[in-house]
Amino acid sequence: MLDLKTMLLLEFATTAFMSVAWLLVWFVWRQIYELKVIAAGFFAIAIGLFLYLQRGPDPSLIRVVTDNMVIKFGLVLWADGLARFLGQPRFVGISAFCLAAQLLFWIFAVIYDPTDLGLRIHASTAFTVVMMALMIRTLYRDRSQPPFLRWIMIFLLGEYSAASLLQSALVYIQPSTVANPVMTNINTWYFFQGHIFIVGFFFCLIFMVGMRLSMDLRDRNAALAREVTLRRRLEGELSASLEGEKAARQDQRQLMRMVSHEFRTPLAAIRYASDMLTLMLERPQQAVAQRLKSIDEAVSRMTMLIDRFLASERQDEGVLKIEQVDFPDLYEDVQRHFDHAGLGERLRLHPVAPMPAYRGDTEMLRTVIVNLVDNALKYSPKDAEVEITIRAHNGDIVLEVKDRGIGIPDRDLAQIGNRFYRASNTGGTGGSGLGLHSCRQLVGYHQGHLDLSARQGGGTIARVFLPLPGFARADTETMQEEEPA
């Protein structure tokens, strides 16, 4: 038969080994932080058993209380760690109260009658039953672990509670079994079944951790499968969207080609009629000649817009006509255009200072200025002037058009220039919302940008920024002019 000391030594070695094993498990799976609490519980019980082994034949009263409280603290850590692990209420208040009551009762019992172990055994039994009940309640409410595993652990906890109650009952029935203050071999059976309980508790926890890791892995695989399915669906939607966008762009290009073709027919008729009038009228009046010339220039400009703007997708194919831009000549073209329309007297062109060399598409830049001036005249009083300035500033060519018109509301500044968008204060003034959009596109071909701002005293300032030196010669070698079909 094993004596009590040998049983305590075996139980101490087993518990110490288990505490180290739990620490190693926690180091491997840090995400299960509750394992360190359970490991601390095994460690506390191992220390308590070691202190029992170190007792002499006549231990001090402080030593008697301390040895017992260390083991009781280990039980509290077990209950708390199990509740944390299973995600159940931790019963911190109940555990703290039981520890405090146990400590006070043991101090009272040791001082009142140090030779009577019965009172201390009954107190320990009560504490053990409460802790086991808390753990049983935690397991009963849990649904994350398999039922059979939970019920095995509940059986182990119930068995240990029953053994503690049995020992307390035997002490109550036969007090002589604990008459000596030093625990004798008669209590070896109690520590033996306690050893079996600790081993069973350890293995049940190991299986629970394994199930937890297995469920975590299954959940992650399921989440990964859902994410893969979602990504595939989004990929399919994106592919369908790209195909739709591609088809829409193809339709748009086809529409632009059709519009371009259909517009050329009436424009050709207008040009033909203008030419015939020029031939039929041998000596037309000056006003008539100017009107015919204006019609011819308008037809040419409209044809250019069709070729270079409505078919803007062809820009990548080399529709830009790059050349050295003569800004004074550009000034004169703009003035002449509005003179033919009877609006030239409202323009105030500031003299062009000596300008650095700039390479770009003159026709496109002329269209930009004409559109900006046309907008300024349209939304300004009939007697208001429109100022035009061209200058070099901070590495840019700046084309500036100032008016004293109705201005642009602040809420519309972010949207103005988008296709078909018109400011909220335009009222009944005619327009399509394409003029500024055209300007932004044509300026964008030159890597520049258009800025619109309010003018002090009322009106709008439109500034076009064209970075110097424009298109380099090396860039233009690959841009071949493509004649329209």
Automatic annotation (TrEMBL):
A Pfam short name: HATPase_c
Reaction(s) the record says it catalyses: ATP + protein L-histidine = ADP + protein N-phospho-L-histidine
Keywords: Membrane, Phosphoprotein, Transferase, Transmembrane, Transmembrane helix
Keyword Repressor on entry: no
EC number: 2.7.13.3
Domain of life: Bacteria
Molecular function per GO: phosphorelay sensor kinase activity
InterPro entries for this protein: HATPase_C_sf, HATPase_dom, His_kinase_dom, HisK_dim/P_dom, HisK_dim/P_sf, Sig_transdc_His_kin-like_C
Transmembrane parts of this sequence: 7-29, 35-53, 91-111, 117-136, 148-170, 190-210
Domain Histidine kinase: 258-470
Kinase listed as a keyword: no
Protein name listed in UniProt: histidine kinase
Species of origin: Roseibium aggregatum
